[in-house]
Amino acid sequence: MKKLIIATCASTSLLLTGCATVISGTNQTLTFNSDVEDVNVYVDGALIGKTPVSASFKKNKVKTVMFQKEGYSAVTREITKAYDKTALLSLFWDYSTTDFITGAAYEYEPSAIYVEMPVKE
Questions:
Q1: C-alpha–C-alpha distance, residues 77 and 81, integer Å
Q2: In a 10 Å sphere around its CB, with 0-12 CB exposed, 13-18 middle and 19+ buried, how is residue 114 labelled?
Q3: Contacts of 65 by beta carbon, 8 Å cutoff, 6+ apart
Q4: For residue 6, what are the CA distances in angstroms to 1, 10, 15, 19?
Q5: Do residues 81 and 3 make contact, with C-beta atoms less than 8 angstroms apart?
Q6: Cα–Cα dist 54/108, whole Å
Q7: Average pLDDT of span 58-69
Q8: DSSP state, 69?
Q9: What pLDDT, in 10s, does the model give residues 22-40?
Q10: Please, which residues have CB within 8 angstroms of residue 92's CB and are 6 or more apart in sequence?
Q11: Domain locations along the chain
Q12: What percent of the chain has pLDDT over 90?
């Protein structure tokens, strides 16, 4: 009886876990760089550092990145997402709902953003 309970609990926990959530995780590291050194990088309005910089973000949450430095025009880019195909693996047992809820069904694409800073005239 004890083995049956343990097996049932283990099976249930597997069924409630999304594949992308487990394999890819709910965070992703993004890298930002530019042709000019020490450019301020703002992700969704919050300063995260100066180029080159990398930071980890919750998947499916980040929208924009802005590069700004005195003497240069600011450059803003949308951060795009793509469907993480790993989430398809959990389609059979939970319809990928866990992956969608946690945001792991998506990934940032590309994970590295490089910009050329235009000089102000």
A1: 13
A2: middle
A3: 30, 32, 41, 42, 43, 76, 77, 79, 113
A4: 9, 6, 14, 22
A5: no
A6: 13
A7: 91
A8: -
A9: 455 678 899 999 999 999 9
A10: none
A11: 2-115
A12: 45
